[in-house]
Amino acid sequence: MEIRFLGGAREIGRSAVLIDDSLLLDFGMSTDNPPRLPVGSVDPDSVVVSHGHLDHVGAIPSLLSGDARPPIHWTPPTAELAMVLARDTLKLHGGTYRCPFAEAELRRLTQVSETHRYREPFEAAGYEVTLFNAGHIPGSAHVLVDDGETRLLYTGDFHTEDQRLVSGTVDRPDADAVICESTYSDVTHDAREEVERAFAESLRTTLWEGGTVVVPAFAIGRTQEAMLVCEAHDLECYVDGMGQEVTGIVRRYPEFLRDPEAMARAKSNARYVSGRDGQRRRIAESGTVIITTSGMLSGGPAMTYVPAVRGHPKHKIALTGYQVEGTPGRDLLETGSAEINGRVMPVSARVEAYDFSAHADREGLRAFLASYRDARVLVNHGDRCVAFAEELQGECFDARAPDLDETVRV
């Protein structure tokens, strides 16, 4: 089995792995400007997608140009989430270098989509493929590929600990080789209960003081997690942006949620914003909690809320996700200012960051890989892939970090 790393090798973003020039695992794009796409040209016989985040599905429609019609295999939530992201990309950037596909390719997605539940083997490009719960977001999957001689496990993004939205992965299928993500290979997450408690106490304190809390959150996964936390701690909230549509999608698939009833309560606890800037400014002045896209302050309704609360320290901006270097969210954390709507704005509102990561940390990665000591481990999807592979080598793993566009035989 030959594995070619077209993206996500020694980097985060544009994940794409090609097996024997036939089966493609993921085909994402980065959030950079301009975005980075997987390298090389591909014409796969089939595609399997691990989960519905932009860096894993963002470029999928571009595979359907011309006469190409490879079937796309994924879980039902991933199929719907991929369509939401593709429509958003086309709406915001269609016809520009930031969108690698057109409306025609997007329409073809539904024609080639084939959905599968966990633990139900299916055939793709001549391989037997099985999806397992990866514990990252609803519908996220480990992908096991079996050619009759070699069993390859592609972890995708995964978490070993429970979140309120989804349960942590417990599946450890037998494999001869593992392509393992390494996003937080040098980080130990604080206990989720402590993060939640601190988050809820901080929000409640700001509300008592008459302030408003803006909670920038990724639409897929993080918005729903924040809604669940607010409901569990008796904090009313508004929800704005794409997270509204995503919440509706994940609720249609209760078998992919840890607690569907809790998600229903969280939806009832939240008030949806219709999308008018006048309404948003009034809400920002009302002393409440607002969960809104985008998670890194690079667009979306946050562009209205942050300017509305930035001028007074009684207000708060509570970041809930990793802030990539060069994004307004990262600038706000490091400098107290951020470029919003084309203008650098100083922010007097208090700024806090909370680690609600949906990725396994250092200990989680090792706990997962403990089941694969006899397998070959190929490290990807991280800022320190080489360093993590070397650490694993020191622990007697057969591990390495392939380079971009490298082909590895297993």
> Can you tell me the number of structural domains?
2
**CATH topology-level fold name of the largest domain:** Metallo-beta-lactamase, Chain A
User: What would the average pLDDT be, to the nearest integer?
Assistant: 97
- Strand residues, percent: 15-25%
| Helix/strand structural class | alpha/beta
- Sheet with the most strands: spatial strand order: 6-5-4-3-2-1-22
Q: What shape does the CA trace take?
A: globular
Number of helices: 12
CATH class of the largest domain: Alpha Beta
CATH superfamily of the largest domain: Ribonuclease Z/Hydroxyacylglutathione hydrolase-like
Task: List low-pLDDT spans.
Answer: none
Structural commentary:
With 410 residues, the chain is of the alpha/beta class. The protein folds into 2 domains: 2-186 and 358-409, Ribonuclease Z/Hydroxyacylglutathione hydrolase-like (Metallo-beta-lactamase, Chain A), CATH 3.60.15; 192-353, Rossmann fold (3-Layer(aba) Sandwich), CATH 3.40.50.10890. It contains 12 helices and 22 strands. The chain has helices spanning 54-57, 76-93, 103-112, 192-208, 222-232, 243-251, 260-269, 277-284, 302-309, 328-335, 362-369, 385-394; strands at residues 2-7, 16-19, 23-25, 46-48, 72-74, 113-115, 122-124, 127-133, 141-146, 151-154, 177-181, 213-216, 237-240, 270-272, 289-292, 316-319, 337-340, 343-346, 350-353, 376-380, 398-400, 407-409. Strands 6-5-4-3-2-1-22 form a 7-stranded mixed β-sheet. The chain has a 7-stranded mixed β-sheet with strand order 7-8-9-10-11-20-21, covered by helices on one side. A 6-stranded parallel β-sheet has the order 14-13-15-12-16-19, sandwiched between helices. Helix 2 (76-93) packs antiparallel against helix 6 and helix 5 crosses helix 7. The radius of gyration is 21 Å and the shape is globular. The N and C termini lie close together (5 Å).
